Amino acid sequence: MTAIVTDWRALPDGLKGAAVAIGAFDGVHRGHQAVIADARAAAQRLGAPLAVVSFDPHPRRWFQPDAARFRLMTPAQMARAMEPLGVDILYLLPFDAGMAAMSDEAFAREILSGGLGIRHAAVGFDFTYGKGRSGSPEGLRRHGETLGFTVSVTDRVDDPGGLKLSSSAVREALHAGDMARAAAILGRPFAIEGQVVHGDKRGRTIGVPTANIGMGDYMRPAYGVYATRTRLPDGRMIDGVASLGVRPMYQLAEPLLEVWLFDFDEDLYGQTIETELIAFLRGEMAFDGLDALKVQIDADAAAARAILS
User: Fold this and answer.
1) Is 32 strand, coil or helix?
2) Is 145 exposed, middle or buried (0-12, 13-18, 19+ CB in 10 A)?
3) Cis omega before residue 84 (within 30°)?
């Protein structure tokens, strides 16, 4: 299991001395995975732990607090995505005023060398860091020569099919409802994780009980109806159909993910579940009443079952 460490100060020796990949890694997509693979090769060569250095909140949120929601995953999802890649430690460092003001040299000296004691750093070809984005891969290599760690730079990864492998490309696909393209970039389906909360329970009146999840800091994919697979706390995967949006009939103040789990009748309130959005079925619609809504939900469920089978 990948351990999450949320500071760099006063760490025990057992949490130091790793070969690290450095970056935001939102989505842990295939391009990110290539950087982590280079760090893994260095870790194996050095006999060192494999770690990732990332930040919470995302630096973009710090510098653009009023920007639209953009996150692709929670810290827990990030750690789970890194586990099969062999990552031992996820350093999820607090991005605050002090870190934002650090020069690239100070970041390398105080955090990477002094705090984490890294032995190797792997970064992407377009990596920047430090106040004003003053640091570059070549600059980090020079700092490493002084401070005692090596640096590798991962070239841009090109997909044979021409996909752009970036977090922004994932967001573009999700905005368009193109779940296949998003999954191809990520290397797995896009998924929303959250605690099941009480809703208005209208679904129960038409025989469609749903598990409701707030969207929080997740970016907003295309509003509409999706075929889904939901991972329960015990690991079971349940097929379903979900509505994501503000429900035109009721005009919710905040978007909600409402998942109908097929052939399932257990209490999930208060539990944390993760729902994969497998395929976009249709956009949001307004209905004349609950009877018309129920007819459409039955059609959506049939379409979802066909796709998921």
Assistant:
1) helix
2) exposed
3) no
The residue whose two tokens read 């109806």 is 225
The number of CA neighbours under 13 Å toward the Cβ of 309 is 7
Is pLDDT above 80 for 204? no
CB-neighbour burial class of residue 269 (10 A; exposed 0-12, middle 13-18, buried 19+): exposed
β-strand 50-56 against 89-94: which pairing, if any? parallel
H or E segment and range at residue 280: strand 272-283
Long-range contacts of 178-187 (CB under 8 A, 24+ apart): 178/280, 179/226, 179/277, 179/278, 179/279, 179/280, 180/279, 184/159, 185/27, 185/29, 185/30, 185/159, 186/27, 186/28, 186/29, 186/30, 186/72, 187/29, 187/30, 187/33
> What's the pLDDT tens digit per position in 153-186?
999 888 888 889 999 999 999 999 999 999 999 9
Query: What is the distance between the alpha carbons of residues 22 and 87, in angstroms, rounded to a whole number?
Result: 12
Q: Which two tokens stand for residue 268?
A: 């999930």
Amino acid at 166: S
